Amino acid sequence: MNKQKRFGLIDCDNFYVSCERLFNPSLEGKPVVVLSNNDGCVVSRSKEAKALGIPMGAPFFQWKEFFQSHKLIALSSNYTLYGDISSRVMELVEASAPLVEVYSIDEAWVDLTDSPSPYEDARELRKKIWRWTGIPVTIGIGPTKTLAKVASKIAKKTDNLRGVNFLSNEDQIIAALSTIDVEDVWGIGHRLAAKLKELKIHSGLDLRNADPFHIRKLFSVMLERTVWELRGISCFDFEENAKPPKQILSSQTFGKALFQLDELQAAMANFVNEAGGKLRRFGLAAGSMTVFVRHGSFPGQVTSATLRFIEPVEDTITLLDKGESLLQSVYKPNRTYTKSGVLLFDLQPRENRQLAFWSRKEEKEEKLRTLSQLLDDWSMGRSKPALRVGTELFSENWRLRAERKTPSYTSRWKEIPTVRA
DNA sequence: TCTGGGGTCCTAGGACCC
DNA sequence: TCTGGGGTCCTAGGACCC
A342-388, pLDDT tens digit by residue? Predict the structure, then answer.
């Protein structure tokens, strides 16, 4: 019999809003939201904003009047800042447990299986993160990942738990699941929830009590695993963070609709530059590349073109060259373009590549690699790289709006806050 | 001819997550 | 005027093979 596992989930409270509050304490206690790229929709809400009924993902333009009449504060997102604060939080988490999986910018799993006092450990860690970074977190603990999620979900809406919830026995688990809507179970989206409700499965407890094999037949193995997890049998284990990505996507909705090929080329060059940088940071080369554009009125149509390389490619210059041809093949004049992007996939470790046959070719590749590296170095930490691939300079029209952005307090010298004594 | 069974590989699309 | 971006996993169906 395997030893019962114990998973802890560390989850930052409304993370983006909390980051903004670090540098602007006047936002404390007020309803605040952070908007997605392009100031399109709401992606993070303070407690006060949630209480006013703003849903996650609400399109900002539809709520503008509501914001004004309720004195709601909306901020553009500042991902450089959030990434920086995140790594400070994660450093503390990583020092706290033998096994840690950073799951997203604001969440991490920790292995508490061998801890003699998980609850006290969690309290301690929460206090430490708060003192050292100023970020409030909630910690849920349970015998499976799915149950740890449930624990944290409940902690977030129950003030007297003070940010830590440990589901340590069967009775507590059953009680907790009876208060959770099936839609709030990890892995159940609104589509599955609707189908489950037709089967009279409304709460987390109903799903736990459903027959896993029946669920598998009606839905999928994934959902079956969720049922087992709710019963305390772990199916989703820790995953190594070193796992390289399987695809790299860089895309954006434009600040305004575009028509010209050269404007699209400028945007595409930027996406390639970004995707290429990420490719090399992971030591990967791409086997295939897709360029896509969205056109027509919302939500519009997507047209794409894909190229499979004869040999995996890692340098930005080649990617850029192929990207241009791909874009040309999908471009038609007199269309309104609203979004585009570049997708790199069939990723493989660089070492796997066949050695070039001619030394000449090797030399050339070496040069391209150095040049790409140079581009990466120059781009680091700058929102506007000083050195860029020529095409990027063509047009800035695709760039998005960020009218409410706060400064990059921690990552750009010019924007570090000054303190007056 | 109205039609087998078993396998693999690939792709597109659905669903979910943060 | 205005609706994010970056991912993963699974499944069904088609092509192809013996």
Answer: 999 999 888 755 444 444 555 566 666 666 666 666 555 444 444 45
- Report the amino acid identity of residue A199: L
Please say whether the beta carbons of A151 and A166 come within 8 A: yes
Round and report the angstrom distance from CA (A290) to C1' (C7). 16
Task: Decide: A101 and A109 in contact? Cβ < 8 Å.
Answer: yes
Query: How many Å from the CA of A121 to C1' of C3?
Result: 43
* A191-212 as b/e: b if 16+ CB within 10 A: ebbeebeeeebebbbbbbebeb
**Measured from the CB, is A11 under 7 Å from any atom of strand B?**
no
- Three-state secondary structure string covering A271-287: HHHHHHHHHHHCCEEEE
Q: Which residues pair with A12 in a beta bridge?
A: A137
For residues A63 and A79, is the Cβ–Cβ distance under 8 A? no
Q: Does the nearest atom of strand B lie within 7 Å of A104's Cβ?
A: yes
Pair A293, A302: CB distance under 8 Å: yes
DSSP A401: P
Cβ of A103 near strand B (distance < 7 A): yes
> How many Å apart are A309 CA and C17 C1'?
26
Q: Tally Cβ neighbours within 10 Å of residue A240.
A: 7
Burial class of residue A368 (count of CB atoms within 10 Å of its CB; 0-12, 13-18, 19+): middle
Among candidate residues A81, A80, A89, A162, the one with its CA nearest the CA of residue A119: A162
Classified as helix, coil or strand, A290 is strand
Report the nucleotide nearest the CA of residue A256, measured to C1'. Answer: C1
How does the average pLDDT of chain A come out, rounded?
A: 87
Q: Please tell me the pTM assigned to this model.
A: 0.88
Each residue's pLDDT tens digit, A259-273: 999 999 999 999 999
Strands A32-35 and A7-12: unpaired
Our measurement of CA A99 to C1' B17, in angstroms, reads: 22
Ranges of H-type helices in A210-252? 212-218, 221-230
What are the DSSP E strand ranges found in A54-146?
A: 73-76, 100-104, 107-111, 137-142
- Which residues, in sequence order, are CB contacts of A325 under 8 Å at separation 6+? A307
